[in-house]
Structures are given as C-alpha cells and as structure tokens.
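Q: What structure does this chain adopt?
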Amino acid sequence: MSVAAGNVETADDAAGAGAHRDNLPDLPRLRQQVLRQGIRIAILAGFRWFASEILGVRVRRWTAQQAVSAGAGRHVARPRQRTRPVRFTLIDRIVALEAGKSIRAVKNLSLAEEYLGDHFPGFPVMPGVLMVESLVQTGAWLMRHTEGFKYSVVLLQEARAIRFNNFVAPGKTLHVECEIQKHDERQYTLKGSGTVDGASAVNAKLILQQFNLSDTNPELKASDERRIQKLQQLFDMLWRPTAT
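A:
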C-alpha cells in the first residue's frame, strides 16, 4: 500500500490499473492502420475515376469497407452495377470544315446550363475553362475528320498563350475556329480562337494527342470500336454540309 497526496492506493488497485493499461490499444499503431486504409481507399477511388472518365472503362463500384478488404487481399462478392460516366458536349454545330486545315463551330450558351447558377450568382457567364474546352473539342473534331476516325481518344496535352478577352453570357453564341499549324502521326498543334458578337473572347495554342486504348492493351480493341462508332454518330449530328 502506498500513500501520496492524501490518496491511498492498495495493491489490488494497482494491479487493476495495470491490467487496464494493458488492454488499451496501441494508439500509434492504430493511427498507422487508419492512415493506410485511407490511402488504399483514395488510390482505388482515383483509379476508378481515371478508368471511367479518361479511359471509358466501366469499373465495379465498391464501398469503403470493400475497398479496404480488397486492399488487404480479401475478396468481397457484390453484384456488378452498370455505371455511365457523365459526358458533355460544348459544340452545338459545325458550320465549316476542311480536312487537314481548319474548322469553325458554334456554341449557344443557355441559361438552363446548371453550372451558370454558381458561375456567378447574379452574373452568369461561361467559365473560362469551358471556353477552352470548346476550343479543344472543336480541334478534336477536325483531327478525327482529318484522320478518318482512326483513333478513339483525343486528349489535350498542352495549352499555351491562353487569353480571355470577353465574357460569354446566356443568350450569346461563341463562334469557335481552329486551324492546324503542324502535326505528325499522333500529335496536332492548333491555333484556336473564339469570338462573341464579332469581338474576341478567347485565344489559345493547343497541342492535342490522339491514340487508341488498344495501343497499350490489345484487349481494349472492342472498346475502341464502340467509342469510334459513337463519335461518328455524334459527328453526323454536328456536321451536316448540306444544311443551310
């Protein structure tokens, strides 16, 4: 028995306290386990987004518990769910097209587009990043048409000398034009510009890259074919040479 600062501690009390301390979890080790599980979940979520949005490959959706179990090497059975990635088209119509040279297209901005509610409240204007995306999509159609739809994927590799000169407000039309400056088998350099009511709105130099998913994985050849077929169908709706 010990006495300190007026408190009496018996041998039984000391033994009970020691046993309680032995049952406490190892906090540093617990924190490491939680951190590792969080990293696994973040990596798997990032992979799923990349596969769905960039590669267009459907990946099964996992819960956090299943992701941790998979990271630990345990298989958790779950019925496959059909997912459909969100896609958007920022070109309403192609008005002029010359393979290997240039393209002109239009984007009609409508107040019904949901992102305008936040950009900006009380002053809706088309975000600059979407203006650049309109240039990219226009240039991509020029590349696909020039190459005869040989490639399923066209991605922006680099954007240089971007200048925003004017706003695009609801009810206005963004007129987009892209011209090919140089190109090789897999890469195009284009000069892109956009105007509103005859005034410059955006300018940029774009470097776009084209490839097929099967270039690195032959098993994705069928996916390439499906993507190309859908792109051709969309192109037929955007570009109608005989329309007035």
